[in-house]
Known about the structure:
Oligomer: single chain
Number of helices: 5
Bound molecules: copper (II) ion
Helix content: under 10%
Shape: globular
Amino acid sequence: MINRRQLLLGSAxxxxxxxxxxxxxxxxxxxxxxxxxASASGIxxxxxxITPNGRSLGWRERNGVKEFHLIxxxxxxxxxxxxxxxAWGYNGGTPGPTIEAVEGDRVRFYVxxxxxxxxxxxxxxxxxxxxxxxxxxxxxxSIQPGETFVYEFTLRQHGTFMYHPHADEMVQMALxxxxxxxxxxxxxxxxxxxxxxxxxxxxxxxxxxxxxxxxAIMQDFDLWTMNSKVFPHxxxxxxxxxxxxxxxxxxxxxxxxxxxxxxxxFDVTGSEGGRWPRNQWRQEVTEIVGVGQARDxxxxxxxxxxxxxxxxxxxxxxxxxxxxxxxxxxxxxxxAGRIRQLVPGYMPMGEHGMAEHxxxxxxxxxxxxxxxxxxxxxxxxxxxxxxxxxxxxxxxxDEEPGEDPGWYQAPEGTVARRxxxxxxxxxx
Length: 428
Ligand SMILES: [Cu+2]
């Protein structure tokens, strides 16, 4: 027998699992409103960092000091067509723009607070005078709404760092306040990279039908993002065959993320500790980027469309329901008819696995609450990809790939294919 609670959970499952309009379901793997740009022509002899779906923060030089302006403010943000939120971020976006500078620079940050509550900026991992560390109450008074504070210090290290508030952190970070802070080495790299990408991992709880991320959630997040976008709306990273690519991954979410790259072994080459000495590089195919950590992954690009994703399988899903009855192997056909009398349009799912979800949504058979992404999505050249969240692509081509070279044309005879029979002398 089914009780009322299970019934509600079941219908919630179908609603939460299926939640978008057909035109959204057909979204291709392409950046939408992605302003992916490198800082113009590099910095300090290094290629500029590319922040997929983001940008680097502008600055000007004044008497030998690099001056930046960070504006903490509410922003309208879209994870992809189908889910918009009222986020908090910096300079119009979440994450905030990537800060880039060079070891030895004197930097000055004007920080203006346009939020409805006090904030600060903590420069995560930086060596600086105690009073510049940005911990509300401890090292400085909070920046009140409407106020501007100035931070100034000299960069005494290089590496992959981050910035975020250290005032009402639980709320302010849950709503999207964070950014990457890249400090390039003063000396030229002995083994320079050709492409330098920065990705900040985060998690969000946007309950179906709502627009405000819920800061009280501890584990059951339903959106997992790279630079605050979800697959398939994360701009692909591109490279030419044979180039040395670095992907700097920072994590200011509430989970550790085992980041996995297909098709190459990468070296873990650095962190907040800077670029590690060559004898400390480690060859891996999956590297956990822990909460509050940054890791630099470097590899030589191989031609193809390669996946890069978190290996927590729930982290490559969009808005999925939690604590649902397990319907795998359960024939629900008779029950579904009875539920439909109470919940019109109820659609049972999951008897043979969840892949059918994307098909139902793509066909427009399932709709759900407003402002809720489908759990699985993405169309590749060979069909449904059944992914979401922290998943995107590295597209490598022999020729210059541009912003997005489309789908990889695999050489003849190099794609897995269907055959009509199995040789009968195969051992099993
Ligand atoms: Cu993860």
